[in-house]
Structure formats: C-alpha cells, structure tokens
C-alpha cells in the first residue's frame, strides 16, 4: 500500500514536470497580480493606523516628539505600565467586564426562551412578536424617553440600571430564531415522549445544540457593550462606575498630547476583544451575514 | 405552527411564562421609549429630576424649524446629515462591493484580508477615533508625511470645518466598509460557479460577466446593503463626538439631538437638557430616515421585479 502510494505520487510529479517542459514556465496571471495589488493597498490603509499605534506605544515621549513616524529600535514597555497605573485602568476594566458579562448572560438566557417558542410557533402570535422586534430598528431613537424612564425609576447613575439597558438585541433574536429552525422538530417530539419537560428540554437539549449561534450572538452583543460610549456618558456620572470607553475619553482629555502613553492605553483596551474576535472570527462573520441577509 | 408536545393544561403556559421576561425587557427599554419619543416631542420636558413637564404641542417643532439663528443652524445640520449620508452610502457601497469581489476570488490569503478589513467594526467608535487621531497627527504623523511628499499640507481634524468633516466621512467609511463587504460576500457565495463557467464558454469578458451575472444575482444583498447604509449613515454621529467634539460647522442631526438633550453643547445652541426639544429633533431625523428609506425601498422593489420577473 505504502509503495503504491509513493509510486503514484512519483507518477503525478512526472506528469507535472512534462507539463512544465511543454509550456516553458508557469504563466503569470496578470489578473491575480492586479487583485493582490489592490488587496495590499487596502491592507496598508487598514493596518497602517494600527501599526502606527503599536509603534507609538513603544516609544518614549522625546522620541515621539523628535520624529512621530520613526520605527522603534528597542522595546520600551514603560508606557503600558504608566497607562495601566495612571488611567485607573484596573477599575474601569473591571467595570466593563462586569457590565459586559452580566448583561450578555441575562440577554442570552431571555433570548433563548424568546427565540425557541417563536421559531417553533409554540406561542400564539409568534410572527407578530418577531416583527415587533424588527420594527424597533426603524422606529425613532429611544434615547430621550429611555432617560426619563430611568430617571423616574431611580436607575440613573446606577450600575444595575446601566446593565438593564443592554439586555435586548433584536438582531440577536433574529439570528437565534433562524438557527433554531435548522434543529428538527422531531427532536422536541421524541424528548417530550420520553417525559422531558419544556424547561429541561430548552436548557439541557436545545441549548447545547445551538451553541454556535449562541457564541455568535453573545460575542456580537458583548462587543457592542464593550465599545459603548454614549450610554455611559449619559447614565453614569460617578467615576467609580465608568466603563473603559468613558475612562479612555477622560484619559485622552488629560494625556491628549502624550501619544505614547495614550497609544499604550488604547492597545490595552482593545486587546481582549481583538483576541476573542480572532479566535471566533469564522463564527462571528458567518453569524453576522446570516442575520443580515435573512433577517 | 407546530403542535405542542410538552403537555397540556397548566403546563401549556410554561413557554408563555418563560418568554415573558424577554418581552417585558424589550418593551420597557426599547419599544416603549421609542414610541414615547413622539409624546415627549410635544412637551417641554427637561432632564432634571422632579421638574414639571407641560404640553407645548408643536412649539418644539416650530422652534426647531422656523425660529431665528438656531433653526438656521438646525437646518444646516440637517443638510450636512444628508451630505454625510450621501457620500458615506455611495462610497461605502461601491467600495464594499469591489472589495467583496476581490476577496471572493480563489486566491491564497483572501481570508487574512477579509479579517483585516472587517477588524475596525469590532473596535468601536472610541478606538477608531483615537487610532485615526494619531495617524492624522499634524506634526509629522504618517499622513502628514505622505501629504508632504506630494507637496501638500493639512491640519486634518483641526483644520477648516469642511476639511475636518471630509476626514470624518473618510474614517466612517474605513470603519464600516467591512460590514458591507461581508454582506456582499455572503451574496456572492450563493451564486453557483457553473453560471460563470457557462458565461466564459459564451465568450463573456470579466466585466460582462459581472454586469450580466453577478450584479443581477446579487440583488438581495444590494437591497440589504443600500438600506443599511442609508439608515446607518443618517443616524451615525459617534465618530464626530470622538474626533471633533461639538464643533460649529460640523454637527449632524444625531449629534445635535444628543447635545441638546444631554447638555453637551457649545456655541450657538445654549440651553442644555432640553429633552422635549431634542425629542422633536429625533422625530425630524426619524421622518427623514423613513422618507429616504421608503423611497429607496420603492425603487429597489421595482428594480427587483424588473430583474427577477
């Protein structure tokens, strides 16, 4: 078997050689060259600002003043230490993580119990409920009455109230509803015949099966909370409650001209989400397209 | 509607009960307030706790559109919103389509380029803004060097309002082109390869294949992208906040609403926390979105009927 495989490979190699001898050399496809040229130009526009950020974060302030664009020769990590200490980062980062995790968990749990019966038609008016969620994307911005409501409920400048604002996501619901449609209904029947109750079915059987969709929706939702700037500016006046985005703006106000430290602070802030994104990018991108095209 | 298998009687109410928290949260936080904006636009509500709120009916609208210098500022913000939306929509749409076709080719490394172009979407407005503020650093930053090389100079975000406005348009497109690209990519991947092979046998050139095969078959993602871009760009303003602040000659409607409603103004609009007034401005923006969205939808539907029969 082994020798057979080897000789087969050799045979193919021979064929290839013959082909190359006949045609001279591999022809250059100019269309592909042009494509790569375009892709690389855009890659520079996309990666350039980020490379500049990394480069700046490794410089000292005098180096930056002397030449903003010179490339660093030695690693200087002091900016990261300085940013971490002076920007009150541990506090803001903890806040952001708490907000992001708690709001995402509440959203996912409520969303699964919403999406499942809507997707299956187990509740009356399923279609109306789903369109109710989609219609909000086109209605007037909710900003002002939302603020008035929070003010009257005593949830202004309150971390609990702030988290409450992030427990909904109509696009996330649509993605889950579409994904649950791909799980066969026969599964519900079989489980019910075996005496499995509704709650247990959703939590123990459905939940593991729709994990890919949950991962997509959770990451998209979490990214939204992580990056939010407007709502913390409106709702949180106490510095102790600030999430990292708000902290960054304060830090920029104080260290606006000290670009090396500011750049280090920006890098610290984007690292967690960037890593999660790079690990899950296939999931996220496919989930996003499904939601956008079908929804 | 599928038959329900998980028991009758009282057990039939379990799905309703478990669905309730999600609905309540949604109505409380999004749907209710969204509809409430209309009511607030007829009042003189402020953002101060315990302050009295009165009905003023159309006064807010009248003031917003027809009274003095402030309304002229409002109308120019409205005009700027339309200009911003026009440039962002057209360029982002065209570029997104072009790049999607490029990264859809079966070449090595396309996945890397896709990820790279999509990356700004996950960074969010604060980081997008800060990254570009650094890249547009006027004192010898990279972009200043490039301009110097071709004999130009610019103060970028600190320059004339129209120039700063132009850079925000550029950065807005940079930041969101990835989403447009991904949606087009999803559309492109639904087109079967055989059609292109058939077109090639018939002697179609690359451009002819695009015009007669790709473009018509891409109709669903064309519709999605065009509507998303129009609605999104009319409502976008966060980059203005991060890059420019509330600067005269650069405001767009979304920023104006926020600034008037939450007291972040400077310059000609002086009163702060005027939430009834800000709600009226929200409704004006909403009507603009509704109008442009419906007109676009109408033409897209007509086009779809013509193409798909």
The largest inter-chain interface, given as chain pair and residues per side, is: A-B, 96 and 97 residues
- Per the CATH scheme, the topology name of the largest domain in chain B is MetI-like fold
Summarize the biggest pleated sheet of chain B.
none
Mean pLDDT of chain B: 89
Q: Please give the alpha-carbon distance between the first and last residues of chain B.
A: 31 Å
Per DSSP, the total helix count of chain B is 12
Number of strands of chain B: 0
What's the CATH class label of the largest domain in chain A? Mainly Alpha
Instruction: Give the CATH topology of the largest domain in chain A.
Output: MetI-like fold
Strand content of chain B: under 5%
Rg for CA atoms of chain B: 24 Å
Could you list the spans of chain B in which at least 5 consecutive residues all have pLDDT below 50?
A: 266-271
In terms of topology, how is this protein built?
The complex is a heterodimer of chains A (295) and B (309).
Chain A (H helix, E strand, L loop, with lengths): L1 H22 L6 H28 L3 H6 L11 H9 L2 H32 L5 H10 L7 H10 L6 H6 L5 H11 L5 H8 L4 H12 L1 H17 L2 H6 L8 H12 L3 H36 L1
Helix pairs in contact in A: 2-15, 4-15, 5-6, 5-9, 5-12, 5-14, 9-12, 9-15, 12-15, 14-15
Chain B lengths: L13 H27 L18 H8 L1 H36 L6 H26 L6 H8 L11 H28 L4 H9 L4 H12 L1 H17 L2 H6 L9 H10 L12 H34 L1
What would you note in describing this structure?
- The complex is a heterodimer of chains A (295) and B (309).
- With 295 residues, chain A is mainly alpha-helical.
- Chain A folds into 2 domains: 20-79, no CATH class; 82-294, MetI-like (MetI-like fold).
- Chain A is 76% helix and 0% strand.
- Chain A contains 15 helices and no strands.
- Chain A has helices at residues 2-23, 30-57, 61-66, 78-86, 89-120, 126-135, 143-152, 159-164, 170-180, 186-193, 198-209, 211-227, 230-235, 244-255, 259-294.
- In chain A, helix 5 packs antiparallel against helix 6 (126-135), helix 5 (89-120) crosses helix 12 and helix 14 (244-255) runs antiparallel to helix 15 (259-294).
- Chain A is globular, with a radius of gyration of 27 Å.
- The model of chain A has no long low-confidence stretch (mean pLDDT 86).
- With 309 residues, chain B is mainly alpha-helical.
- Chain B folds into 2 domains: 9-40, no CATH class; 59-308, MetI-like (MetI-like fold, Orthogonal Bundle), CATH 1.10.3720.10.
- Chain B is 72% helix and 0% strand.
- Chain B is built from 12 helices and no strands.
- Chain B has helices spanning 14-40, 59-66, 68-103, 110-135, 142-149, 161-188, 193-201, 206-217, 219-235, 238-243, 253-262, 275-308.
- In chain B, helix 4 packs antiparallel against helix 6 (161-188) and helix 6 (161-188) packs antiparallel against helix 9 (219-235).
- The longest helix of chain B has 36 residues, at 68-103.
- The radius of gyration of chain B is 24 Å and the shape is globular.
- Residues 266-271 of chain B have low confidence and may be disordered.
């Amino acid at each position: 078997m082994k020798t057979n495989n080897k000789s087969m490979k050799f045979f193919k190699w021979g064929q290839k050689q013959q082909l190359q001898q006949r045609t001279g050399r591999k022809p250059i496809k100019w269309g592909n060259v042009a494509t790569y040229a375009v892709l690389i130009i855009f890659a520079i526009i996309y990666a350039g600002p980020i490379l500049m950020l990394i480069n700046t974060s490794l410089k000292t302030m005098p180096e930056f003043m002397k030449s903003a664009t010179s490339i660093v020769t030695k690693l200087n990590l002091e900016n990261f230490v300085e940013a971490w200490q002076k920007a009150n980062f541990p506090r803001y980062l903890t806040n952001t993580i708490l907000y992001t995790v708690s709001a995402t968990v509440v959203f996912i749990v409520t969303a699964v119990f919403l999406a499942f019966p809507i997707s299956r038609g187990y509740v009356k008016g399923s279609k109306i409920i789903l369109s109710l969620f989609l219609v909000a994307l086109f209605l007037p911005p909710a900003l002002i009455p939302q603020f008035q409501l929070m003010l009257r409920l005593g949830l202004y400048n309150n971390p609990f109230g702030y988290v409450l604002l992030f427990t909904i996501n109509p696009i996330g619901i649509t993605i889950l509803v579409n994904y649950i449609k791909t799980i066969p209904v026969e599964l519900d029947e079989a489980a019910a015949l075996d005496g499995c109750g509704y709650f247990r079915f959703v939590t123990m059987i459905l939940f593991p099966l729709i994990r890919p969709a949950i991962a997509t929706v959770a990451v998209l939702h979490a990214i939204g909370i992580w990056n939010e700037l407007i709502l913390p500016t409106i709702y949180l006046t106490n510095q102790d409650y600030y999430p990292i985005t708000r902290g960054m703006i304060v830090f920029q106000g104080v260290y606006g001209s000290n670009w090396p430290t500011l750049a280090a602070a920006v890098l610290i802030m984007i690292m967690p989400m960037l890593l999660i994104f790079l690990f899950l990018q296939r999931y996220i991108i496919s989930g996003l397209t499904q939601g956008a095209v079908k929804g | 509607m599928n038959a329900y298998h998980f028991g009758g009687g009282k057990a039939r109410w379990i799905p309703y009960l478990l669905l309730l928290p999600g609905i309540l949260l949604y109505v409380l936080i999004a749907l209710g307030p969204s509809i409430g904006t209309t009511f607030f636009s007829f009042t003189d509500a402020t953002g101060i706790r315990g302050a009295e709120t009165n009905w003023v009916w159309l006064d807010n609208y009248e003031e917003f559109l027809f009274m003095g210098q402030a309304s002229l500022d409002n109308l120019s913000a409205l005009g700027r919103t339309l200009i911003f939306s026009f440039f962002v929509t057209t360029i982002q749409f065209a570029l997104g389509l072009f790049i999607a076709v490029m990264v859809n080719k079966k070449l090595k490394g396309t996945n890397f380029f896709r990820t790279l172009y999509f990356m700004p979407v996950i960074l969010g407005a604060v980081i997008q803004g800060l990254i570009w503020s650094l890249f547009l650093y006027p004192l010898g930053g990279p972009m200043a060097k490039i301009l110097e090389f071709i004999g130009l100079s610019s103060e970028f975000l600190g320059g004339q309002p129209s120039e700063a406005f132009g850079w925000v348009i550029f950065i807005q497109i940079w930041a969101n082109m990835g989403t447009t690209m991904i949606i087009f990519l999803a559309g492109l991947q639904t087109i079967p390869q055989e059609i292109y092979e058939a077109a090639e046998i018939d002697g179609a050139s690359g451009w002819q294949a695009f015009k007669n095969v790709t473009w018509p078959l891409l109709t669903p993602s064309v519709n999605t992208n065009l509507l998303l871009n129009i609605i999104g760009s009319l409502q976008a303003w966060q980059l203005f906040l991060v890059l420019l602040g509330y600067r005269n000659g650069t405001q767009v409607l979304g920023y104006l609403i926020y600034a008037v409603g939450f007291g972040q103004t400077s310059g000609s609009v002086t009163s702060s926390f005027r939430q009834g007034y800000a709600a009226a401005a929200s409704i004006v923006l909403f009507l603009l979105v509704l109008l442009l969205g419906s007109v676009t939808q109408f033409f897209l539907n007509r086009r779809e009927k013509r193409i798909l029969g």
